[in-house]
Amino acid sequence: MRKGLWRVWLGLGLAALSGVLFYVHYLIFHDLHHLGIYTMHDIAFLPLEVLIVTLLLHTMLEWREHQELLQKLNMVIGAFFSEVGGELIERLSAFDTRPDVLHERYEVTTDWTDEQLKRASADAIQRSFDLKPTRDGTTDLRDFMIAKRQFLLRLLENQNLLENERFTEVLWAVFHLGDELQRRTDMAASPDSDMAHLAGDMERAYGRLVAEWFEHLRHLKVRYPYLYALAVRANPMTLEGQIEVLG
Questions:
Q1: Domain check: are 159 and 203 in the same one?
Q2: Number of domains comprising the chain
Q3: Alpha-carbon span 114 to 50, nearest angstrom
Q4: pLDDT, tens digit (0-9, with 9 covering 90-100), for 129-158
Q5: DSSP per residue over 193-234, as a string?
Q6: I need a surface site. Which of 145, 167, 194, 230 has the fewest CB within 10 A?
Q7: 94 and 174 fall within a common domain
Q8: Alpha-carbon distance 28 to 31, whole Å?
Q9: Which range of residues forms the domain containing residue 241?
Q10: Angle at 39 between CA 34 and CA 42, to 5 degrees
Q11: How far is CA 33 from the centre of its chain?
């Protein structure tokens, strides 16, 4: 409460200053008629001033601040896919039992429109992927997730990520998968039921990752076309894209 007292004192001070200036005006000109006219004119304009400053200008400033926040979030999302997300999609796609779907629906090119990218994102989040992880591949995936855990934890420290609910869900799905993998120290001894459970966690994370990857491409296509072209060539769901980048 004490921290806000300065606003009260400031308001009282400004009101008092206004009264003093009105009094000085009267002492100089001795004209209450014109003083009243100008005072009523200012009071009549006050609601319009509140409309312009408080509503319109404030809304514009909020919109600009929101756009700047989204730009920062997109930078964080880009770092995530460069450090973790892209390779994680690649590793999970190796378990996909329907690679034909990846080629048919997700073989993105630089000519894709924003609407095509948007449809691919919606398709990925709704699709029921069928992953069949191998024990050796799951062991490698577990080691990869352990190595990247500190990076993912640092991402969670960014409070601005709460502004992007979709990406937050991606992170939680990835973290859950990582936790499940770390609990299994010996994949070779894991029963089939355990592998089936892991497959479900992988499918959940996989769908969200792919959907978010296409949303990230939408951002790159508009703001950074050269990065968009590189991301398309490095499509983590297709072997051809990986070979092209390596070559």
A1: yes
A2: 2
A3: 39
A4: 999 999 999 999 999 999 999 999 888 888
A5: HHHHHHHHHHHHHHHHHHHHHHHHHHHHHHH-HHHHHHHHHT
A6: 230
A7: yes
A8: 9
A9: 70-246
A10: 130
A11: 59
